[in-house]
C-alpha cells in the first residue's frame, strides 16, 4: 500500500511538471506575404527573438496578395504587402500599417547599352507595343520581358505607377512575358538572359548588379533613396504589414509592429537597403 501511495505521488508530480513545462513553452506565430518585405521581417524576427526567446515566428514569401488573403482568412496573424490595400480587402477587415518606403527599379541585362528610359517607353515595352531594342536606341534584338506573377505587390505597384500612369487605366501587361514569383527570381532571370528587362524593389538592386543586370534611370531620375523621399522618382511606394482589424493591445502582433516602427526596427529597414519612414 505504501509503495502504491509513493508511486501515485511520483506520477502526480511528474504530471504537474509535464503540464507546467507545456504551459511555459514557446508560442508560435505564422506571418507571410510580400517577398519585398520579407528581408525586413526576417531580420526583425531574428532581433525580436533575442529579446523574446519564448516566441517563435515564421515568415513565408508568397506574394502580397496571398499574404493579405491569408491574414483575412486567419492563416497568418500578420502579412507583408508591397502595395496598398484594395477596397475589397478593406471591406473584409484588412488594415495596413506602413513600415518603410521603397521604389521599384527598372532593370535590364547588362548587354543592353541603355541607361535611361522614360515612363511612357517603359510602359509600351511591358504592354507589348515596343518589341525590339533597336526601336529605342538599342541593338537589333527582340526584347525579352520578365514579369511577376499576379500575387505580387511589386507587379501591382508597377502597373499603377508606370503603365496606368503613362497609358491610362485601361492599359494592361502583355501576356507575352516570362513569369517569376519573387524579386530574387526576377534579378537572377534578368541578369542571366540576354536582352531581358524586368523590375525589382530597391532592396534587390545590388543583387541584380551581382547577377548581371543593371538598374536604369526612369525619366532621367536615378533610383535612389533621396529621390523617393523628395518625390521625384516616379515608381515609389510604401511597404506595409497587414493585420485583420486594429492591432489589439498586449498582443505579440502589436508588439512586433511597434518593434518594426522603433529606432531599432527602422535601422533594420535601412540595413536591408530599403528606406526608413523618417
Task: Explain how this protein is built.
There is one protein chain. By secondary structure, this protein is an alpha/beta fold. It folds into two domains: 26-101 and 239-271, 3-Layer(aba) Sandwich (D-Maltodextrin-Binding Protein, domain 2); 103-236, D-Maltodextrin-Binding Protein, domain 2 (3-Layer(aba) Sandwich), CATH 3.40.190.10. It has helices spanning 2-23, 38-51, 64-73, 87-91, 119-126, 153-167, 183-192, 205-211, 225-229, 252-261, 263-271; strands at residues 27-33, 55-61, 78-81, 94-109, 116-117, 144-148, 178-180, 196-201, 213-215, 217-218, 236-244. Strands 1, 2, 3, 4, 6, 7, 8, 9 and 11 form a nine-stranded mixed β-sheet that branches. It is elongated and about 65 Å long. The relative contact order is 0.19. Mean pLDDT is 91; it is low at 1-24.
